[in-house]
Write a structure and sequence with these properties.
Length: 179
């Protein structure tokens, strides 16, 4: 029997590194599923040049938190020619939060085994809203291949010491004198 009610809730833990499988996306544009690409039963998403995979992420606790991003990937393109852009798609043309500069990955001599690289970029950070936010209202983050194809196996979230600024308290209104 196949489960009928499954959800791609991507909860991010507040104090440890969290890995989210690339196959837990909410939508894709031009990308496709790469079965057993890393090894048997370990799948990835194939993202051709100009294509993207999109995700919704939620913090596990009810506080706003900031995370540094990383990715586990594979590409045969020469180092410096392929980037994986991270885009906040909450607006029609969302801001690019940063781009991973990908290095060429290696393969076994007979090209039967792909060796994935890991990269962590301290300049690419996202701030997640509390999990009480309705899923449909969560920001969608897009990971777009630029300059060549890339296979993504997982996205990593490292909690940062930098937290978003606190919301200023509401100042009480002055009482209006009554005559």
């Amino acid at each position: 029997m196949v489960p009928s009610n499954t959800f791609n809730d991507n909860f991010i833990m507040p104090k440890v590194c969290t890995l989210i499988a690339a196959t837990k996306l909410c939508s894709k544009v031009g990308a496709d599923f790469a079965r057993d690409h890393l090894m048997p039963t370990v799948h990835s998403m194939h993202i051709p040049n100009g294509s993207s995979i999109n995700f919704r992420f939620q913090p596990f606790v009810d506080t706003t938190r900031t995370f540094m991003l990383g990715v586990r990937y594979f590409t045969t393109a020469a180092t410096g020619t392929v980037k994986l852009q991270v885009v906040n798609t909450s607006k029609k043309v969302g801001p690019i939060l940063g781009a991973f500069e990908l290095e060429q990955c290696s393969q076994s001599d007979d090209k039967s085994i792909n060796y994935y690289n890991k990269i962590k970029d301290e300049t690419i950070m996202i701030t997640l809203k509390p999990k009480a936010t309705a899923v449909t209202d969560l920001t969608v983050y897009s990971f777009k291949a630029v300059g060549g194809e890339v296979y993504v196996n997982a996205i990593a979230f490292w909690p940062t010491a930098v937290q978003p600024p606190a919301v200023p308290p509401i100042k009480p209104r002055k009482a209006v004198p009554t005559a």
